[in-house]
Amino acid sequence: MFCCGRSSGPSKALKLGARGKEVDNFVDKLKSEGENIILPSSGKRPSEVSKVLPPPVNMESVHLRVEEKISLTCGRDGGLQNMEVLGMITLRVSEDKSGRIRLHVHNDDKKGLQLQTHPNVDKKLFTAESLIGLKNPEKSFPLNNDVGVLKWRLQTTDESFIPLTINCWPSESGSGCDVNIEYELQEEGLELNDVVISIPVPSGVGAPLIGDLDGEYRHDSRRNVLEWCLPVIDAKNKTGSLEFSIAGQPNDFFPVHVSFVSKRNYCDIQISKVTLVDSDSPVRFSLETSFVVDKYEIL
């Protein structure tokens, strides 16, 4: 496996944490395949060495999570076969004094979402005023429990809704295939992080010859995958491309899979404020927002 940018550079090393005989044998095998191996001196496990944790959220007594996941399937010649976005707002209250509250929902949806409140939430209040509160306002939300209070669903085959389009164009040449793959961010309000576009490549024919490239790439010869890696895709770099050549047939380069994470949600639903039921006084709250991939493939 190797990773580089536009020009050839040193490979990114594989890190291993254990030191047993089996690991030594495994390391020898990897070295024989041309891998660059670094063994950390500490006794930490590989996941502890390599995993970079996000900064912790400073959680208030009212904590909210707005979470979405997308499942999308496109055809290689165009056409959105199916796209589904599932979202949920989850509430966690950690102090009694913050239990009798209402959540003010900012809903600027223009995509045609299907919304559903929790059975204990006052649906009429939500429909009329975009407020999430319990049917019995004298009751409090459960303490120290994650409660899903609102969920939504978007299902479409409208191509204009695709957040990130991927076009993969393999062209047969005398020695194999020249492949041009490009992306375009259609939903410019999004910022996608840790984007990986995975293209299958034929086995036993050597590494692909990389041409023009935005971002970085990794060739995993054991999994027969070329991974195109982009730290950030946003409105400032909404398009990009990768070109490579390798022996093979056009069908060898599908399906293409995409993964990313985002701290901005796809659907325009957020919590604008939280207030007490009796006094309508504002309550401090913390908020986490995430938009992740369940499945994203070009067949």
UniProtKB/TrEMBL annotation:
Record key words, sorted: Cytoplasm, Cytoplasmic vesicle, ER-Golgi transport, Golgi apparatus, Membrane, Protein transport, Transport
Location within or outside the cell: Cytoplasm; Cytoplasmic vesicle, COPI-coated vesicle membrane; Golgi apparatus membrane
Residues covered by the MHD domain: 59-299
SUPFAM superfamilies cross-referenced by the UniProt entry: Second domain of Mu2 adaptin subunit (ap50) of ap2 adaptor
Statement: the UniProt record of this protein carries the keyword Cytoplasm: yes
Annotated CDD domains: AP_delta-COPI_MHD (cd09254)
Membrane topology: Peripheral membrane protein
GO cellular component: COPI vesicle coat; Golgi membrane
InterPro entries: AP2_Mu_C_sf, Coatomer_dsu, MHD
Subunit relationships: Oligomeric complex that consists of at least the alpha, beta, beta', gamma, delta, epsilon and zeta subunits.
Family in the record: Belongs to the adaptor complexes medium subunit family. Delta-COP subfamily.
Task of the protein: The coatomer is a cytosolic protein complex that binds to dilysine motifs and reversibly associates with Golgi non-clathrin-coated vesicles, which further mediate biosynthetic protein transport from the ER, via the Golgi up to the trans Golgi network. Coatomer complex is required for budding from Golgi membranes, and is essential for the retrograde Golgi-to-ER transport of dilysine-tagged proteins.
Identification of the protein by name: Coatomer subunit delta
Source species of the chain: Lepisosteus oculatus (Spotted gar)
